[in-house]
Design a protein that fits this description.
- This protein is mainly beta and 312 residues long.
- 0% of the residues lie in helices and 51% in strands.
- It is built from no helices and 21 strands.
- The strands form four sheets. Strands 2-3-4-5-9-8-7-6 form an eight-stranded mixed sheet, with no helix packed on it.
- The two termini are 20 Å apart.
Length: 312
Amino acid sequence: MQRTAWLIAATALLTTPGTAPAVATATHGTAPAAGAWQKVGSDARSGVSGIAFEGRTAHGAGVRALIVHDNKKTGQQRLSRITDKEGSADVSPVTWDGPEPMDLEAIEAVPGKPSEYLVLASRGIVYHLRVSGSTAKVLDYAPLPAIGQGDNFESLALVARHGHLAALWADRGAGHRPATLYTAPLTFDEYGQPQFGGVTHRTYRAAYPAGDAVRHISDISVTDSGRILVSSASDAGDDGPFDSAVSDAGRVTVSAAGQVRVTLAASPDVLARFPQYKIEGVECLPGSSDALLGTDDENLGGYVRTAPLCGS
């Protein structure tokens, strides 16, 4: 299938265990090369705090995706749509219709429910949306279960297996404090409110980057085969410097009875490193080995790109 420049796989990003990954680097503000970062925001209010695949463009050549922004003031943009056009990424606003959230950090399509999404705020409130055109209507909302002392959430993934749904989300961790990855079965009541089953949790430390500014899990995506990909990011302040990586963190399975099991790797495999960028969105694209990555680089804006990280 012919791809646009935005969807060209950046094969130089792949690495093998035990070796330092090669990286295609770019400086903020420079014109992107083919397959490189595409700018989608120009300031701290327009970065990508979470990203969800929405669909393909005509003839399947491009991608539409929804992104959330971590804005906190009334009237600021919460949700936008990215559409690629011949190698560039266009952004259009999506109107939020319902109780206004604060500090959105993740978005995920609900499997089996076309045009429906779950959106997660940093304090642990989950919003169930239905998106139609340029409007996102809040169907219902609920708190996450088992919120721990000091938890700050930046990630959410949903998995569908054997007719059952499971949710994965994480407290991001900070520096010496590891992230906590939570998992639970997921259903919806008659009003559309998320209902979570029994929760399990495990701690996770990023293999890269390191230091006091690292957020061990800044987003989660699950491949078709059940691999758990996580992004980790270092954030030294609103003007950086930033650093990020995407790692293979383990596996998730959902049994025929709906039981959810997560196995985390003792030594996460760093698939790619992305210096100068703070990745907060990772989304494996259906039917592809590509991940769509999004950054929230604070005063430097937001960027997206693809990288071939989701193969089996």
